[in-house]
Amino acid sequence: MLICSNQRPSQSQATITQIVLYAYSLRIGDVCLREVAHFHTSLVLFILLYSYRMDNKHLVNSIVEGIQEKKGKNIVVVDLTKFENAACSFFVICEGDSNTHINAITRSVKDYVHEKAETKPAAIDGVENAQWVAMDYLQAIVHIFQREPRHFYDIEHLWADAEITQVADIA
After folding, report:
1. Disulfide check for 93: which of 6, 49, 54, 143 has CB 3.0–4.6 Å away?
2. Where residue 120 sits, what CATH number does that domain have?
3. What confidence tens digit (pLDDT) does each residue in 53-66 have?
4. What are phi and psi of 63, to 5 degrees?
5. Among residues 31, 30, 38, which one has the least CA distance to residue 14?
6. Domain total for the chain?
7. How far apart are CA 5 and CA 139, in angstroms?
8. Range of the domain at 148
């Protein structure tokens, strides 16, 4: 018996595949843990680890697409996954030309990630002055700078051993 991805499987009828499909449909968060944990703890941990790796790439790609949609410049992805004490797995850093441009990029990232990765930021800060906006997606933090503050803080080089990927600007 196959279940719809949004239908909760019963304990007596659930197969591992059905549990995985159901858990993935819940976007693998706290809800998943509460809903699926009674099936099998190790299975839930496996699902979380697998989904975490897959969702990070999808999340970062959605963020980059949102930035590119509004012509954000000098996009850099900093991979922090090999650092145990890092606040997140990725930094996505870009810059805009003005307060209006920074706010447009911020809205675009929020909309793209909501549509493509089906998630919302845990927090957004800096929108008021739009010199440096930070968007916290837990696994990734987006930093949208104006040129001067970006060069001053130079956050892409805080971790010397981090893998830095430059994303080409869209003309």
Report:
1. 143
2. 3.30.460.10
3. 447 888 999 999 99
4. -65, -50
5. 38
6. 1
7. 24
8. 55-167
